[in-house]
């Protein structure tokens, strides 16, 4: 898992191994320390308007530079953290770091919406909306300065508790984005019942629209449905001009992917955003920060 080619060459963690395997416990211990030792960093990947190339928001993606093993991708440690109480700490860290960066950008006229990935399990935590409210107030940011990306798994599991948190977020005004759409359990119809404002079409469909009629039709119908529900559509994994053009022609609102740029550290993202930022509907820009 961690030891995929070109990485450490040592097998650190396999998800199917014993819960108490030394590898798993080591990595969890390292991650616990990483949170305090600033080994974690957020990189930012823009969401680009497919119609004109303007940028309205960025997605924050977590990076871990392990002192011994080097960079460890989130797919190798987020699922591990998700099985433990560490996930809560990780999400707390990510939200704080994202709000701090949002404040830096907003107060310098770059009013981009920062999307943060959270785990379905985070929605069981009543403290999440509270943390957001406190953070937004502290930095003088409107609730739409941040957005939470969740996967369709919010539809499974403990619905009652999850619904409570989703309601609290809606009251607060923090928007939700449905990530990796198409890979999970929800039918298009169930979208309607979710309090989401954005749907991100999974890269596995997007990547193939230029080659496969079926994938083209699937993505087209998702884009149409998302639009008819009054939501914003985002295509993940846009890697070629051809795919971007097709998506634009379908009426897909935003695209993200290597065609535009990779996720970048904050300083690089600031430079990249420079003249590309554009206001987007649904975000309050005239917000008067409370003085605290
Ligand atoms: P995601 O939220 O669906 O993020 C999209 C992933 O696709 C990112 O991988 C991004 O770097 C990658 N990507 C972007 N454009 C392209 C492209 O054109 N081609 C290809 N092949 N890939 C592209 P990354 O950063 O490795 O993150 C993987 C997953 O880890 C994320 O999927 C998200 O589910 C999770 N994750 C990342 N950061 C966090 C975090 O702070 N908290 C939580 N809970 N999960 C996170
Ligand atoms: Mg995401
Ligand atoms: Mg995704
Ligand atoms: Mg994904």
Description:
The chain has 292 residues and is an alpha/beta fold. Helices cover 38% and strands 18% of the residues. The longest helix is centred in the N-terminal third of the chain and has 21 residues, at 86-106. Mean pLDDT is 88; it is low at 1-11. Bound molecules: ligand C2E and magnesium ion (3 copies). Keywords: Membrane, Transmembrane, Transmembrane helix. This is Bifunctional diguanylate cyclase/phosphodiesterase. It comes from Nonomuraea spiralis.
Give a summary of the structure in a few sentences.
This protein has helices spanning 22-36, 74-82, 86-106, 127-139, 159-172, 203-206, 213-228, 241-250, 266-273; strands spanning 40-49, 55-66, 70-72, 113-117, 146-151, 176-181, 198-201, 232-235, 254-255, 264-265. With 292 residues, the chain is an alpha/beta fold.
Features:
disordered N terminus; eight-stranded mixed beta barrel; 18% strand; binds magnesium ion; binds ligand C2E; Bifunctional diguanylate cyclase/phosphodiesterase; alpha/beta; 292 residues
Bound molecules: ligand C2E, magnesium ion
Q: What topology, given as strand order, has the largest sheet?
A: 1-2-4-5-6-7-8-9
- Describe the largest sheet: 8 strands, mixed, barrel
pLDDT < 50 runs, ≥5 residues? 1-11
Number of helical stretches of at least 4 residues: 9
Structural class of the helices, strands and pairings?
alpha/beta
How many extended strands? 10
Helix content: 25-40%
């Amino acid at each position: 898992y961690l030891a995929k080619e070109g990485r450490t060459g040592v097998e650190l963690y396999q998800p199917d191994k014993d819960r108490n395997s030394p590898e798993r416990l080591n990595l969890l211990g390292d991650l616990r320390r990483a949170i305090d030792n600033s080994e974690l960093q957020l990189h930012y990947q823009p969401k680009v308007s497919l119609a004109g190339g303007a940028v309205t928001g960025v997605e924050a993606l977590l990076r871990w530079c392990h002192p011994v093993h080097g960079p460890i991708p989130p797919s190798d440690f987020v699922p591990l953290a998700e099985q433990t109480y560490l996930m809560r700490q990780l999400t707390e860290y990510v939200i704080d770091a994202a709000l701090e960066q949002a404040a830096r950008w907003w107060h310098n006229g770059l009013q981009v919406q920062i999307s943060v990935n959270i785990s379905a399990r985070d929605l069981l935590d009543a403290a999440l909306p509270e943390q957001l409210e406190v953070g937004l107030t502290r930095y003088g940011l409107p609730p739409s300065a941040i957005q939470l990306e969740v996967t369709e798994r919010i539809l499974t599991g403990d619905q009652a508790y999850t619904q409570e948190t989703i309601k609290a977020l809606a009251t607060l005004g923090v928007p939700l984005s449905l990530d990796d759409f198409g890979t999970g359990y929800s039918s298009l119809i169930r979208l309607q019942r979710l309090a989401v404002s954005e749907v991100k079409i999974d890269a596995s469909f997007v990547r193939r629209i230029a080659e496969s009629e079926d994938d083209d039709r699937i993505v087209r119908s998702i884009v149409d449905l998302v639009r008819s529900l009054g939501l914003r559509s985002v295509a993940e994994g846009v890697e070629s001009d051809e795919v971007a053009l097709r998506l634009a022609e379908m009426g897909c609102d935003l695209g993200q992917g290597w065609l535009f740029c990779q996720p970048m550290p904050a300083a690089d993202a600031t430079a990249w955003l420079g003249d590309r930022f554009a206001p987007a509907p649904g975000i309050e820009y005239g917000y008067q920060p409370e003085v605290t």
